[in-house]
Records
---
Amino acid sequence: MDSRRVERVEDWDSRPFSGGFEELRSLADTEFTGAVTAGTTWLFMLNGRIIGVFDGTIDDFDGSSGTTYEAPHPSVPLLFAMQETGGEERANYYTNDTPVSEADSTLTSGKFTGYIELSENVLSGDYYVVYYGGRSMSCAFIGNRERLHTGDEAFQRADDEVGIYTVMDVDIEVTEIPGPEPEPEPASDAGDPAAGAAAGAAAGDVVDDGTDQSADATEPADATEPADEPVVADPAPDEATEPTTDRPVTDERTATANERTATADETPVTGEEPVVRDAEEERTARDTRENRDTGRQGDQREPAGSEPDEGHTPGARTDSARAEPSRETGTDPNRSTGQGGASSPGAGNDTEPAPVTTTVEDDHDPVQIPDEVLEEVEREAAAEEGEDPVFEEEAEWRETRSIPSINPDRSESADTSTSTDASKSASQPSTGNRQSRRQRQARTESQQSSTGPSNSTQQANTGSSKPANPGRQSRRTEHQSTRGADTGGTDEPLEREMLQREDKIDRLQQQLSNVEEERTELREERDQLAEENADLRGEVEELEAEIAELEAELTELEAEVAAQRGPAADASTQLTPQQALEGTNLFVRYGSKGEATLDTAHDGEADADAVNTNLRIEHHTQFEADDAAVDGQRYVDFLHDSIEFRFVEWFVRDLLYEIRDTGNASPMRDLYDAIPEADRAELNGQVSLRYDEEGNEQREQTTFDVVVRDRMGNPLVVANLNDSRDPTTEEMMVDLQERASRVKRTSESLAGAVVVTASFFDPGALETASEATSGSFLSRDSKKSFVKLSRKSGYHLCLVESRGGEFHINVPEL
């Protein structure tokens, strides 16, 4: 068994199984639908029939124990049995080209046996339509949980899906449950004429009324009491052709007819019914369960209602009818309760046989039944044999094994061929068993309809042979008359209407069951969603509480930052450091030009204190400085703390005096003369370059951290500032030296280039500066730290370190 199918079966309702074949027969009697397992062997049952045994044989269930699983719907065990049996793939169709409903109509009309599987290119689930003899049932396994849907809902879902479905042709065989061991037959002395004569004498009484006969027929035969069993007179072969005189011969056809008439109202004979029925036919199937088993046993015996061969007496036909077993008694058709000792040659010389009667043990005299009555009954049964088309239809769909084509033209031809083949096969001797079942059905109905006249004849003959008990005879006559009236008055349309109503009730009950299952699933899904919703609500509440805590913490931090920032936090203009510096220019101004200035200090006529008292540095911005903040700090505070502002202030307030007081006014002449010319300083300022390179004039803009200009805007000093903890590298030095040289070639006013670091200069930077100023570095006879571009053109290169807010010249050494 496929492991996935085993898992699905094990989800069904289950109960222990321990009775072997006996419990299998009990399951068959209750029309069980599901699966049974014993060890590793599995079997599937549908309406009490075994439709497949897998991973073993039926003998594995003899005396074994296991588990029974009741199927939720008849379609599922039939589908699993077909899938395990395996079949032949007949066709593949795309639903947009050939809908499932169209294929279903064709397969149903063609009495197909197999199933449709719609699973390829379908994401929602697997859909199946199962057929047996053209009758269909639907099931589907939907979603990741593979929830089972059945009936019209499953078929409608399949018909609405888009995908590719496969038509599988499967041959299903019904497995019979092995019967119990037959009971030992009572010992009989076939060779003792005296024993035969005694048996014949014991069988000389007449048959009682139908009710008593039916009651006797339901009691099992007791091997220890042979006198209770009816003894059959079996004439010898040579006696069958001899004319006989009036002698008491038991006519068991009358007894059998009465027995069947007595049980006809309760169990109408319907013959062997199909294995698969629609859900609408299940109630009718339960009512006909007994007679279906009778039909199965009838397949193994010869028809009892055929005409006798020429030269045989009616007693021979009586023996054949007597050999037919009933379901209630389970009598072996090969078993006989008496030998030919009861028959003797006739004493007369008449050439015409006298009316022959049969005798069954009772306390009445024999009844003489004429052959004309028996022959009339048999002729009526033969005439009615072809009137009921139910069994012919059953035979046709049971013999159908070919899948019809979806093409209507081919389906029509296939149907014609099938009908022709079925007609031919119905006329062949191989259909004898089915014909015998129809003959027995027709004979039973005929006997039921003629019960009244037969009983009347029996009573008349009984009266002429031997007087019967008046009270008992009256009761028997009344019972037989009532039985005949009931049987004769059966209203077939009324029964059909009753069955239709019962089928409608079954369908409504099935729909109600499906709705209840769906309601249960929806309730479970609702409860699950409610639990998930509750969990999510709890999680949301936790997250909201956490958000509230974070917001409170953020508010506190913002308050702290605002307190630290002060008024800058409310500034309307918020700037980045780069924006603030690019939009700022510093101007060198004096309180009074008549007092000490940089010019008078340059000439040695004023000291530093006097000049610095009169000198001030003013700033001009491209934005509202009073209502501006830089990174949460007031703009003015940011500006005064910046290294750019401190460098400009050092340049105009201290550098002149350091050069003059150290006696380096002459070696640093160009730079020394440029300081008094300073009018303004541009932060993050740009300088326009124009120079020749390879004979071509080049124009570009270059940027320096600070550009000191004169009143005309000509650059006097350019400076790059390194305010990080990292040292100034060789690359930074080379970059400044190259760009300053280009500025000098463009503007002769440039007097110096300065590199300021808040850390230190690495050896590479010092070496680069030394190479650039070679010939003047450490030379007392020439300009110090002078980058000479031509014989008369150059500028001073200075390396300055910033320590604790103060600036010190590292190169040149002053």
---
Amino acid sequence: MLQSSYFPCRGRVYSQNFLNFPHGILFLYIMTNLCPKKHLGFLFLLLSFSLYAQGPGCPNVNAGPDVEVTCADPCTTLTASYLQTGETTSYAVTSIPYDPPFPFTGGTGSTNITSDDVWSEAIQLPFDFCFFGDPYSRLLISSNGSITFSIAGEVPNGRYTPSNGAGYVLGQDGDRNIPGNIGTTTDARAVLGIMGVLQDTYPPNSFSGWSINYEVIGTFPCRMLVFNMYNLGHYSCGTSGGVPQTYQIILYETTNAIDVFVKDRTPCNGFQEGRGAIGIQNWNGTVGYTPPGRNTGNWSASEEAWRFTPNGESNVEFTWRDAAGNIIGTDPSITVCVDETTTFTAQAEYTDCNGITITDIDTVTVTRESDIEVDLGEDVETCEDDPIVLDTETGDVPDLTYEWFLDGVIIPGATNSTYTATAPNSGEYTVEVNQDGCIITDSINILFNPQPIIANPPQDLGLCDDGGSAALFDLTQNDAVVLGTQDTDFVITYHHSQAEAENGTPFINPADAYPIVGNNETIWVRIQNANNTCFVVDSFEILLVSAFATAPPSPYYICDQDNTGSEPVNLQAIFSADILAGQDPNELHVTYHESAADADTGDNPLPQPYMVTTTQITLHARVENRLDEDCYSVTNFEIVMELPPNVNPTPLDLITCDTDNDGYAPFNLHDADDDITNGDPDLVVTYHPTELDAQNDLNELTDPYINDDPFNDVVFARIEGMNTSCNAVIRLNLEVRNSPILTEPSPLRLCDDNTDGLQIFDLTVRELEMLGAMDPTQYDFYYYEVEVDAITAGQNALETPDFSGAIPAPTAYQNTTPFQQTIYVLAVGNALNTAPYNGGEGCFDIVPLELFVDPLPTAIQPLPYE
């Protein structure tokens, strides 16, 4: 990312530090003196890359952007960021991207260094730089790329004199590394020193434009000393190596961090073995820090950079403060809740090694805004039967409370976001919505007018069609029905259509002698209040009616299912459709009677269901029009009761074996026929998936039938007699058992001791091999010389087990076929085989077992040995 930014002069204690930016960002700049005196303007060039640590820079804190909260959610989390620094009791050394923030030639502070191996004059810093726990304000720069605070006569144990020899030896008497110093003036490893790059450079023989310069940049409390070694040559090698030695050291005020940028460093192999070093060390050379591979030695570097960051105990204290200045938190993130717009302050207080405190603050304002609106709508005039739902339409906004008022009086219990206003409560309705102190109100006027209702549905009116005179209907028969106990001032009118009824005109007059148009007509009734503001309408039918009774098929046979001599019959369900023969059952009423006289008068209707108690009976049916009880017709029919077939109601479960043990297997359902019919050849059995299917003779199942549910299933048998219409339905349980799955065993081999091809075998030795992981206690083994005998015994194992044909002594069996014979092994689940599911008792598997009688080897007479 490339970006330019300009920081204008700001009314704070110090200007914004150009290095104080988030992880992953470094700013390069061209600095111009755009602001008067201590305020500097900066033009930045922003490059994005990955940093290993927070960039050093000014003490600063950022409280984050201003925040708006709502009445519904007045809380928010504020998160501040601030520069975190530590004491200089220890340092962390990290590699940083090579990107020098200052030019190597930009230093305005010249030095008096023009010769070899000398210190500069004492350089006064405008700030204290803390180094290994102590503050320093004066330093020396050497011609060999080092800085020291150990100035003789100025600091305790000060060792070096301005403008005097700086030492040039790296590795004297075998002591080479940092930390270290043998205490002689020739040792180049400066105590209380910063070295980067420390090597024996030679100003008198350097590249064109060479410079040893420094500059102090920035304003309190973030000033920087920039020390540059530019285009230097080596002692001994001079410029013959062809690569100018160029590097930069930066010291930061307050953070006390140190950066070393190495543009180019190459060794001069002809002098001191080309040694060089980057590092820092304390006042006596006992504690020091160097980057990996950059302690005293022969190494080269191009465009690399290192940072020495104080990482002792934190020297910054962070606090959050409320509007009154009270401390409300010390973590950068804090959750605050406000009931009004409030300003919070983030404060970072830095303490340097002199005990000087530097404080920076930033503020964030939390503004509380209501996020809801309440609008109950326009005033309403309506009818009493039209409840008005008043809705605040606040949606799902949480933590709201509601209070409703009628004409200024609190409505008890009305505390929801909606309220339903009902008659007769006319007046002004007001709602107050409270969102943690935010009160939003709205009002609406509601007027309820009296609302007529249809007290009872109007009755359809019918007159029997006699084919003679015109039928005149008295519509007012429905006046009392629809009005009920309502106000007698309500007006009732009758109309030809719904539209006319809703408009109130025209209306039928006279209403008590209305001639029907056609055979049927819809009439609409209207009830309206006295001032004609509210009304209700409904409709009913007037029609010419008739009633016809058609004789149903007769006789009708029923079964005495429980053989008790009586059987209930639902006469309506069985006969009414045939008797009506397509007429609308909603218009006609069918009743049943034991005598023709009762049917003619409608007396003594039979109950439903009706209990038939004789083997044969004649019943009478009356069809009456619901709108005119004098409109009717009668007919009759016979009922004959028969006995059901004699069956076994609890047949044995039908069991089969599953060859692949997945719980599904084919059943021959008709194997249960004899058990179900008790052996009666005149009964026919069919099988069905459900009891209802069996009762209705639907979805017959055929053999072989594979069960629907694994291991246990049920079907229903329907049994019919050849000489009766009766049937019986019973349940048949199906059970699937697991079969053993044998592994074909390896052959048995014995030697032919008698050269007759016969031998005595123990056939049982392969049983565990055949069973594999199956439990040997749950299976019985039988051995057969003939395969069909083994198959027959296995097939009969479930119902009629018979293993008499098996080899009687399988542990001492002599083969009957010389040399090779096949024995057939039958494994059958025994009574212990009860799991999983239904177990496997009676289920079997057969595998062959090969017997071999091998001839003895023939000895060959060897030749005589000589």
---
Amino acid sequence: GKNNTVQFVQPNSSSVALNRVTGASGSQIMGTLKANGQVFILNPNGVLFGKNARVDVGGLVASTKNISTTDFMKGQYTLSGSGNPGAQVVNQGSLTTSKGGYIVLAGERVSNSGTVTTPSGKTILAAGKTVTLQLDNGGLTSVSVNGSVVNALVENQGLISATNGQVYLTAKGQDMLLNTVVNNSGTVEAKGLANRGGEIVLNGGDSGVVSQSGHLLADSQTGQGGKITLEGQNIHLAGGSLTTATGKTGGGEVYVGGGWQGQDSHIKNASKVVMDKAATVDVSATENGNGGTAVLWSDDYTNFRGTVLAKGGAKSGDGGRVETSSHRNLQASGAVDASARAGHGGEWLLDPTDVTIVGAGADTGIDSATADGTDIFTPTASGGQILNSSIVNQLNAGTSVTVKTSGTDTDGETGNITVNANIIKTAGTDAKLTLLADNNISTGDNVSIGATTGKLNLDLLAGNTTNNASISLGKFINISLNGGDLLADAGNSASGVSLTFMNNGKIKGGNVTLNLSRGLGGYAYNVNADNDLTINGSVTGSTGWGAVLGFTAGGKLAMNSPGSISLQANDSGNGGGRVLISGDKGVTLNAAAGTVTLSAAKAATNGVNITSGNGAVSITNMVQDGSNGMTLTNANISSKDGIVLNGTTFWGQAVVMSGVNLTTGGDVDITGLAKNLTTGGLGAASSSGVQLSGSNISSTGGNITLTGTAGTDVSHPSISSLQVSNSTLTTNNALTLNGTTETTTGVKVTGSTLSAATLNVNGVARVQGTGFSLATSQLLGGLADLTNVSLSSAGSAAGAQNVLDNSIVNDANRDTLLA
């Protein structure tokens, strides 16, 4: 009765008193129950602790299930069997244990609207077919709930407190569909007073809904936050709910629907998870230490609209880790804060199958709130969608954001990421955005990604598990990172990826690295780096109508292609385009097994410009088919420290330059080699080394050396190994022309002007033909009187000829040449 007291006097705290109640009525405890040991109350008709009930024991089990006498005497505590229809275990009063004690309320339906207190102990509310307890020295070491029952329900509307302890609310329902099996609308505390907070588990089994609309608190004011886990088929974090595992020395852990990326085998993955707009999860460090880990995961559908906090400590520590993901459909419009006032920002991972980053508006399919009566577990958009403002807010807070797609699904989704809205970081310190796609990455037209405050580092990683993936940037894409670095690469080193600009795109970053085994290409695009620009992969591009195709670097610029490099400024009839390549500390273009083509349709447009303010320019290639190795047309190349052009081919022309202007303060070294790639000998009969026409080469402080080697023969008399026509070569130092052929001309100069301190011409015709030929040309500067001129055909076959016309040899210099 209300004013009565029952006290069990037991030998010690390990003693267990079994009270098996028979009859047709449920047990009603309205007064006070005390025990220095453990008390079991088993009644198949139900157990009620009334509002005025006061229980103070070492341990308590109240259940509608039964236990066999044999098992009980053996210390095997398995509760089984079904209570009578409608039987429940209900607490409306105050249940308390001594330190380290336990309270177990078990049946088909269990509810608490009173208070349950188990300091440093365990509180279990369980609904299932069997409940097995492991007891040791007066304490509960473990509990397992197995088997499902119809209409299972565990609910808490009151207060459950297990300071430094654990709380488990577990229900295993059968065919529950969207009915609630675990419901917390009250407060569950497992706060920590020592090293870390306690543990709270809400487990709804394989069927039904786990609903959290109250407070789940595993905080610690002295140590690290504790751990909270919500498991079940469908999980709902309702508006106004608070789920926290904060800690003075570090954040704790909250797992809703699964572990990190759904890979924790100890946590059952949910089918669907919904977090309402006003729901909060907090795993922050409050004073020192790093933020903790918070995960929302589902196999089918996650709708994230709430707030997740994983902040670093106010005095020290970095931000924590947050994941809001689904294996299939993710809708994310919520807020994440993994910032750190005294450290580095944390990480936010979003990981669906396919996903589109969208802007605000009615057409996004993302609801900010759920209407009354709506099935909250039915997706409001057909595919995964993330609101761009959610990403921007976290970048502004210094939190790194990773959007990752995984695998394929039955709806035909293959792991693509699509960006259809702007992502512009406008505040805060440096942050990083990573787009990691299992398959392809693409953007819409007129999309901007970048930063105006602080650096934004951007990784575009496609083909994480698939081959031949692509990164496709829409028309007028603008990526401007405010000094942040850009990496475009394959997500997996074994896969290949390409990057394509659809039209008039722009990239600007600090260091820009494009590792593209399937190549870079597009129309009128620009890639600019404040520091180094590195492109590993074949490079193609074209432009016209006055547009620019550009590559610039404040540091070194390097294009390393396993195939070809082809950049062309075309003439559309309304004016040609321009190709601009600039690296302040050097420019290197290397096509290891392909051609280099840099061409402009019109010389007057200054169509191709390559510059290096404080470094050298180097262009090299090797091609194994009939293509020309290197073709430069209407191009301007200037550098401070030198220019190196090195072309190698088998069948075609190794280096072909027309309308080219080279200017440098260092050496100019142009080498064209046509060789047999099998034997290493000279190449095919129609090949040539270097062809220079209508061009100008000038070095103010270095030497100029042109070397051509090829396998020309008498059937191709117009082809020379080194041929200079209608060009001007000027240097204050040495000018050297080297050419080796089989049967035509080694070095051939016509209609050109040569000005240098010294001139060395070495022309070799190995079988027959002409070693060197200089005609209709001018020798200026220190060459005018032939005093500093050396002409040689050493190595040529007997009978080989040399040609010097009267533009070179005249009455004024003949004696000098013959001396």
---
Amino acid sequence: MHKDAISAAVLGCLLEPALAGLAAQLGRIGGLSEAEREIVRAAAETSALETVRLKTNRVLLLELNAARITGRLTGQDPRARWREWEERASKRAYWESLAEHYPTLLPRLERLIAGRCAAALTLATRFAADRPALAPLTHGAPGSAPITHGGPTEELIALSFGAGDSHRGGQTVAMLACTSGVLVYKPRSVAVDIALARLLASVLKDEPARITVPDVVSRDGYGWARHVQHRHCDGERELRVFYRNLGHWLAVMRLLGGSDLHAENLVAAGPVPTVVDCETLFTPRPPFEPTGYGLALDRAALLVGGSVLGTGLLPGRGLALGWRGVDTSAIGSLPGQQPAPKVPVIVDAGTDAARIEHAEVPIPAAVNHPSPEPVLGAYWDEVVAGFGGLSERLRRMDRAGELEPLLAEFADLPIRVVPRSTETYAELGRMLWHPRALHDEPAARRRAASLLARQAANLPGRPDDPAVIAAEVEELLDGDVPFFATTPRKGRLTGPRGTTWGPQQDLVEAALHRWRTADLALDRQVIQCALVSAYLNEGWLPDERRLLPSEPLGHDLDGRRRRLASGIMRRLAASAVRAEDGTATWIAPVLNRTGWAVLPLGLDLYGGISGVAVLLAAYQHETERGRAEPVPGLRSLLADVLRTMRRVEDRAAEQAAKRTGARRPDPVGGYLGLGSRIWGWLLLHRLGAVGRHEACARAASLVPEIAAALTTSSPTSSPTSSLTDSPADSPADDDLRLDLVAGTAGAVVPLLRLAEHHDGPEAAELAVAIGRHLVARARTGDGTAWWANPGFPDGLGGLAHGVTGIGWALSRLAQATGDPTFAATAEAAFTHEETLYAPDKEGWLDIRQDDDTAAAWCHGAAGIGIAATDLLDTDPRWADVVRRAARSCWSDGLGWNHTLCHGDLGAWELLGHAITRGLSEPGLDRGRLDAHVLSSLEEYGPISGFARDAFPPTLLPGLGGVAYQLLRMHPDSTLPSVLLPDPGPHTRR
């Protein structure tokens, strides 16, 4: 939000009494010069002013609007009326008059301001007392022992509050610029920093550039720290040391149960990544409640939740409103790989039309990276190696009895616990300062308490004691983030306003037990897979080398095909998480609505368990016909996977039936979401894995959910949005995606196929309704049509997310219905795609890149060509598109990785179609194509593009799809393509 829209003159009347009192109190502190007192007073004013602005912007703009509408402003123009309103609002009487509508506003603001001033006074008092001990933090070399001796007197020359959230009466981290350098004030104990520094020195004593924490001066309940200056690495050697050191941090925090280590908590100081805030160690593990989705999913969730992911260091995408899709991790947070979240901003400031709207605001760059344009993929092996190497060293120390004494030093030191995310508190805080909440504070309190209690019921480990929840709400009403602390020996949390919560437990013993029983191989797999979460892409990271075979071999093609396919299936079976209740799943990178995350598989076909079920059914289908090698256990694994799918769907339906209130709808796309599940069930029936009745019934049960998603306007996952009831407080854009993968276009053909299988008009009617929605949302011009895409308001090309995919769906809908509007819009979409073809580059431009082409299924020639191949059956003009797409794929679509979505096996399918239809490059035949693909797989091993050595079993982005295409490589195979969301026409079985 535009923090300077409301001037200091308007808010000054609120601040002046408290600031005058602060100035008088500062005058009574000995050891401060007059200049230093003024620096503290001015910093407190700046901090309080910014906080009050953010809390009052909404209510003041609402009152401004009311004054304008009712004619109480008489200025000649909008700016004159703004100045007139400012003049009124700068008087204390104006604020007192607001009590009629907002009875608690003024008292709450006075408490907030008083807290900020008291915190400033406390800092000044402590600085004056500790000044003689602080000079070594700015003069001495970093990495020395804890500092207790004196040094040259430091003079304060600048001060800023607010480096982090405020807690416990307005206390925040502060930055102090002194004559010889910068200090950091922390209004919490820094004893844990000293203990961690000792531990690091003990376990990494032979590392010349070891990981560290800042030097500190520790006092009772607070401390001072050296300011760590960000510095980029100097050359390749330092870069490799830096990333190996990140692996060391992962190993240490895995041992210590560290959490909440986001980008702001880590500073890249050359080759040394320095954790500047290490208060959240020995984090208690929340209790786990069975989900009802099956023991395998519960087991997988526990494995992921207890893995190194819990540290917060590894890349991951946020879920909260306003931060959805944002990676705040200490290792991630890559520049250029963050969405621009929509946040409230004030527009037309300085006029009587000032109002709040939402706008995309870039996320400020952090200082956690060792280079201006970090290339995580090039150094990820160093991260994995650093984790593995130090973990093994720690295991050796533990066996020798050297580790436990080091951890015992932490037992009685204060630590912080974060049982609820800061984002949760931020959303509730905004709600509690909204005009409607200020008008009826008792109702807002009840609503906030209800939301926190509901969260605790759904997410074990969140405070559920009504007294604690009431105290949390009180803190939020005062503008603070609730703070929970304990000591590892005690374990029971001390919360806001003196409350306590949670069991007594030895957190050091618990963390050490979890570490000793941890599956470090799983942790390494999680680290390898987590890399993809740092990127806003389709789940692949180009390697420095291309995976082109050095010598394509044409002998024994079928035998080699069989061996490669069976090898992948053996790995798939071995990596499954299975349980005694007959359920099964996998842990892998999963693409959801916020981006990539390492999780148990979801239900979708793209990267979920439905796709794995299709693969298993296809392998069984081909094995029974002698076209694939038998692999023990696959039949029972398929049965377990199908059992899991049924249980998850049935349990989700039960929960939906009990749920009250609005719910953010699931994606409806043909690969991610409800559409994918429709054609997944129909395809499983076609492969003989399930009966027709079950497939149709389960697919048909999804139709009402798609219809609900289509009719839901501007859904939101925020638990507080219903309190605002103001369009200005919710992002205005429709959250319903339109593309083939995750959006409505992807549901069209699955619905049409369901209509062929299932009696009743609902599926076909819904497909038509989606078509009309797509036509209405199209942007047109110069005979072309395109659709806005998140982050790309001018649309994208290609099949998965762009105009070809939507055009293909509309074209198929036009064929089914004869509606000329669908046909015309599809034609306009294809015309738009042609505007992206670059003849000089012999490919289609990828709008996401600068003047570059793409040749993958998701973006580029392979997907465009596959859609054209399907349309070629009814229109011969598509032959030219197939020819050009095949040429682009042969020259630039191979050798990046082996997946269907963005690799060789997606290009292989298009090239095979082109060969069959006589549209391929001269000299390219099926034998040469198959030899190329098989030789690359043999020479490099199957590569998914996520990270080397990772094994994602999934269909489109993982190695499961490689096995599926190897099955289809047999000349007699009748397995359908999975590169269009179409299970094929209905045939009676």
